[in-house]
Amino acid sequence: MRLDSAQAITGNNLxxxxxxxxxxxxxxxxxxxxxxxxxxxxxxxxxxxxxxxxLLNVNPYAQEAVNGVVLVTAVELTxxxxxxxxxx
Length: 88
Known about the structure:
Order of helices and strands: HHH
Structural class: mainly alpha
Radius of gyration: 16 Å
Number of helices: 3
Largest sheet: none
């Protein structure tokens, strides 16, 4: 008799905060810039943000929206616009 089994969707809710934490830590999503210390710092910041939103009883959909805005802002700040020809 099986009591527990693994599901393919088990960690789906952890991917978005992990990517956001790495981007907030200043690690470039294209690679080559940043490191593990920065990623851990980003994880602490995102964890504090998420816990604060939970304590404020913010709607879970709004929490995802806030994480999305934080991710877009972090990527926007770390992108090197000089290397991209189509963005001026």
